[in-house]
Amino acid sequence: MDQKIKVVSSLMSLTEYVLENAPQLREAILRHSVRDVVAAKLAALIASGLLKVGDSLPSERELAAALQVSRETVRGGIQILAAKGLLAVVHGARTKVISDDVGADFVGLREAKRINSYDIEDIHASRWLVERQVVADAATRIEDQTIGFLEESLKAQRKAMEDPVRFLIIDREFHLAVYRSCGNAALADFVGDLYGFMMEHRHRAVAEPGAIERSYRDHQAIVGALKSRDAERTIRAFEIHLNRIYQTTITILTAGGGIAGQDVSVLDGGTLPPGRR
């Protein structure tokens, strides 16, 4: 009987401890999970080719602004990837990518490299078909909190005009936030995978003079359309943006001899490549 009393007493003590410390415990768990999310986002950038071995990461402050989290959270995410041998953290210097072997620790990241095996015309046609519906749904479902996130993203983009890597990190978060507002997680993930197509070449494309400014203006139009909750206006804004991405990417690929025999015609906003209408 005495043993049972001790057990019950211990359980009551544990319960009382959990109840008394629930806010702090919940906050610790939340911080841990957000660090994991940041680590997964950075791993995705490595897996997609945006961040390559030898590249330096933006500063913690810049990453915190891009991802809209605290510097402490960014530091935690970086530490996770450093422990996995993907990043090297050197005191007094920028964190560097030392491996692109992301592995299976981050679910779905294997798709980032597989997506590049498809033809650019097929990817563009797929984005045109699916993404327009996704953003139309997003326009009618998007929450004020997400609108606020996008507006903060525009501010961060404005500060990244001379930094293609930082801009593309912000750009990715911008697009994913819109996709996730559509109300269909499967479609949002699918379009997110398509977004990652040939990110290495997108890096080169946005480094061209005026490219970031043009994308920024596209994003302003997209946010304006979403704020109005106007599905058709949102579709038109995304059509212009999708065609701009297609044009700049195909120009970079052609210059590098990567798409011999493919059409490089200039598109008007809202039209598909020849043969894809």
Number of helices: 11
Rounded mean pLDDT score = 82
- The shape is globular
**CATH level-4 homologous superfamily of the largest domain:** GntR ligand-binding domain-like
H-E order: HHHEEHHHHHHHH
Beta-strand residue fraction: under 5%
CATH hierarchy, class of the largest domain: Mainly Alpha
Low-confidence stretches: 24-31, 259-277
Structural class by SSE content: mainly alpha
**Which architecture of the largest domain would the CATH scheme give at its second level?**
Up-down Bundle
Strand tally, please? Answer: 2
Question: Residue share in helices?
Answer: 55-70%
CATH topology of the largest domain: Four Helix Bundle (Hemerythrin (Met), subunit A)
What is the first-to-last residue Cα distance?
A: 80 Å
Q: For the CA atoms, what is the radius of gyration?
A: 22 Å
Question: How many domain units?
Answer: 2
Strand order of the largest sheet: 1-2
What's the topology here?
Layout: H1 2-48, H2 60-67, H3 71-83, E1 87-88, E2 96-97, H4 110-114, H5 120-141, H6 144-158, H7 164-180, H8 185-195, H9 199-206, H10 211-227, H11 231-255
Antiparallel strand pairs: 1-2
Helix pairs in contact: 1-3, 2-3, 2-7, 5-8, 5-11, 6-7, 6-10, 7-8, 9-11, 10-11
